[in-house]
Design brief:
Blueprint (H helix, E strand, L loop, with lengths): L1 H18 L2 H6 L4 H35 L2
Amino acid sequence: MANDKNLAQLINQEAIFEEINEEELEGIVGGALLDELIPGLATTVTGVSLIVSAVVTRVLNTVATLTL
C-alpha cells in the first residue's frame, strides 16, 4: 500500500515537472531555481524507473508461474 502511495506521489511530481516550461525556469533568478529542481527530477525519474522495473519483473514472474 505504501509503495502505491509512493508511486502515485512520484508520478504526480514528474507530471508537475513536465508541465513547467524549461524556458520559464531559466528566467527565474538567472536559472538558480532550475539548478535546484533538476537534481530532484532526476531522482524522481530514477525512483519511478526502479518501481516500474520491479513491478514488470514481478508480473513476468507471476505470468511465468501461471503458465507452467
